[in-house]
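Q: Structure tokens for this one, please.
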Amino acid sequence: MNQIPMTIRGAEKLREELEELKNVKRPRIIASIAEAREHGDLKENAEYHAAREEQGFCEGRIQEIEAKLSNAQVIDVTKLPNTGRVIFGATVKILNLDNDETSTWRIVGDDEADFKQNLISVNSPIARGLIGKEQDDVVVIKTPGGDVEYEILAVEYL
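A: Here is the predicted structure, written as tokens:
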């Protein structure tokens, strides 16, 4: 399997979720199944079937997180010298040359992306257009609304 790029914060969040699933949610589900079994006939026991279904989702998520963490390539940009080049984990301030709006984005892994918190996936069109470019470069990003020109105002490794 390919390595999955991830920031330190992203890896920590996945580890926290894994701990929550293993140490809180899994035991609660097991207790729910045991309680539902006490109600008798399992064929017509809705609580039992709901708990088993929840257990399946929980175990699937645990396996998914463990696989991602085992294949994670954790990148700490704070330990890299800032060359002004846009890389994974960098925070980039850009100016839309069409409407003079500025925006700031941090390029993160797929699991960490959260548009509302200005965290964009490394696989997003904006990130792919910015990676490898440098401060003061003008880049053209293909968007659903057409090509948009951006100027890179600042690149920080936070």
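A few notes: The chain has a mean pLDDT of 92. Helices lie at 8-37, 46-70, 125-130.
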